[in-house]
């Protein structure tokens, strides 16, 4: 990733969260490895993904702007050397051969990994140079999935910024904003420590045929004029596939029918409901026979559905 995540996304440092998200999506739509074979585009996508991962989090963005972390999200260590302590004016051991216990120095440098013996932090032997173990950093990404994949569950293949392709299992009932952890797919560890994890924040794409309300889902079912008047059995789509639904006699547009247990899966294994909203669709052509029938019917049965709604 470039040292400047703002440059990788092509936005100024004053860019809003919405501008940053828009810039990332614009790059993803043209440079994603699944969409082009251009290696330069792949590099741009990698840089943009890493940049967006850093800047989408307000806290991480603020820390980067303050210089506390670098463009990879790693801490910028405040280097404190042995000499700084040994030569400090108030150090009672300055100039003496016995330098005492400097475990606090190692704790500052190595994140509290100092331990008695072995001359310092884990992995240091006899006061000489050595190695230490540090778990790899977690990497954060955003993954957009379609509504039905989130509802039913399924497998989605993603390409990480390093070019590595990975199949991700999306649990049934996944919510917008939910995080999926991929263990060991983050930054490499140091020494013998494990790699970090990849954390995928799920964005569920809008669907023109489905709306979500908590664990319930809402769909619209077009019905004919005669089905609305006479009622009948019609086919309706559910998350699990088509079912036959009974439309009541005299149904109106906007009327909702409930299919219990046909909604989204909850954490406890139960499911929400599906609400089917009816929509009366007139025939593509009103012929003379229908027009004459309605005119005769209206003469004796006129009514005002708008009365009382003012």
CATH fold label of the domain at 211-301:
HSP40/DNAj peptide-binding domain
Order of the strands making up the biggest sheet: 6-7-11-10
How do the helices and strands follow one another from N- to C-terminus? Answer: HHHHHHEHEEEEEEHEEEEH
Structural class: alpha+beta
**Helicity range of the residues?**
25-40%
Please report which band the strand proportion falls in: under 5%, 5-15%, 15-25%, 25-35%, 35-45% or over 45%: 15-25%
Terminal-residue CA separation? 60 Å
Q: Rg, please?
A: 31 Å
How many helical stretches?
9
Low-confidence runs (pLDDT<50, min 5 residues)? 78-129
Globular, elongated, flat, extended or rod-shaped: what is the shape? elongated
Say how many strands there are: 11
Overall pLDDT level? 81
CATH class of the domain at 211-301: Mainly Beta
In CATH, the architecture of the domain at 211-301 is Sandwich
Walk me through this protein's architecture:
This protein has 310 residues and is α+β, with helices and mostly antiparallel strands. Among the domains are: 137-206, HSP40/DNAj peptide-binding domain (Sandwich); 211-301, Urease metallochaperone UreE, N-terminal domain (HSP40/DNAj peptide-binding domain, Sandwich). Helix content is 27%, strand content 21%. The chain contains 9 helices and 11 strands. The protein has helices at residues 5-9, 17-31, 39-55, 58-65, 82-86, 103-110, 147-152, 225-230, 288-301; strands at residues 139-145, 154-159, 165-170, 179-182, 198-204, 211-213, 216-223, 232-238, 241-247, 256-259, 274-280. Helix 2 (17-31) runs antiparallel to helix 3.
């Amino acid at each position: 990733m470039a040292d400047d995540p703002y440059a990788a996304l092509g936005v100024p440092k004053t860019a809003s969260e919405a501008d940053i998200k828009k810039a990332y999506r614009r790059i993803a739509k043209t440079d994603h490895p699944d969409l082009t074979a251009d290696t330069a585009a792949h590099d741009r996508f990698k840089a943009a993904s890493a940049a967006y991962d850093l800047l989408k989090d307000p806290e991480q963005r603020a820390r980067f702007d303050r210089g506390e972390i670098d463009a990879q999200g790693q801490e910028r260590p405040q280097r404190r050397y042995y000499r700084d302590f040994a030569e400090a004016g108030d150090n009672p051991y300055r100039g003496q051969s016995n330098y005492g216990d400097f475990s606090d120095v190692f704790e500052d440098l190595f994140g509290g990994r100092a331990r008695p013996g072995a001359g310092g932090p884990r992995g240091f032997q006899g006061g000489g140079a050595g190695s230490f173990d540090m778990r790899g950093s977690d990497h954060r990404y955003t993954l957009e999935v379609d509504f039905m994949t989130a509802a039913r569950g399924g497998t989605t293949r993603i390409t990480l910024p390093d070019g590595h392709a990975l199949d991700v299992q999306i649990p049934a009932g996944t919510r917008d904003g939910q995080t999926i952890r991929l263990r060991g797919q983050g930054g490499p560890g140091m020494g013998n420590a494990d790699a970090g994890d990849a954390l995928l924040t799920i964005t569920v794409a809008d669907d023109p045929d489905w709306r979500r309300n908590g664990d319930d889902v809402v769909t619209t079912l077009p019905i004919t004029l005669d089905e609305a008047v006479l009622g009948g059995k019609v086919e309706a789509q559910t998350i699990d596939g088509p079912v036959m639904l009974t439309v009541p006699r005299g149904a109106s547009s906007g009327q909702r029918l409930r299919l219990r247990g046909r909604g989204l899966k909850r954490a406890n294994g139960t499911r929400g409901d599906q609400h089917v909203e009816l929509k009366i669709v007139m025939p593509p052509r009103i012929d003379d026979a229908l027009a004459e029938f309605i005119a005769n019917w209206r003469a004796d049965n006129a009514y005002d559905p708008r009365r009382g709604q003012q």
